[in-house]
Amino acid sequence: DRLRACIRGIDLACRYGGEEFVVVMPDTDIGVATMVAERIRRRVAGDLFAIHKGEKQIEVTISIGIAARSTPEDNAGMILKRADEALYRAKRDGRNRVVADAA
User: How many CB atoms lie within 10 A of CB 40?
Assistant: First the structure.
């Protein structure tokens, strides 16, 4: 719900693995995608998450990697690979940040 509240109606959010999510943003340039990702990051960091049936609350942060189609030959697998590489740069550089693929 937190994720869906931050994206547009045309975007598609889905789980991609155990702790990873993908947001597909059709016809969106990297600048707009970065703004949306920052909005998601701030929203998650700004909310406490309840655990143990609400008895305890914890702070959660997220790291986000972004990639966009850069050539007509790019396919979904190539874009996901670049987004994953950007995600690992975000984690390596200190976590709780958004990193866009340079391609």
Answer: 21
59 is annotated as an active-site residue: no
Structure confidence by residue, pLDDT tens digits, 8-35: 999 999 999 888 999 999 999 999 999 9
CA distance 75 to 71: 9
Q: How far from the centroid of its chain's Cα atoms is residue 33's Cα?
A: 9
Choose, from 19, 20, 38, 85, the residue flagged as catalytic.
19
All domains of the chain, ordered by start, with CATH? Answer: 4-100 (3.30.70.270)
**Other beta carbons less than 10 A from residue 28's beta carbon:** 19
Which 3-state string (H, E, C) describes 16-82?
Answer: CCCCCEEEECCCCCHHHHHHHHHHHHHHHHHCEEEECCCCEEEECCCCEEECCCCCCCCCHHHHHHH
Cα gap 44→16, rounded to integer Å: 18
Which pTM was predicted? 0.88
The rounded Cα 61 to chain-centroid distance in angstroms is 11
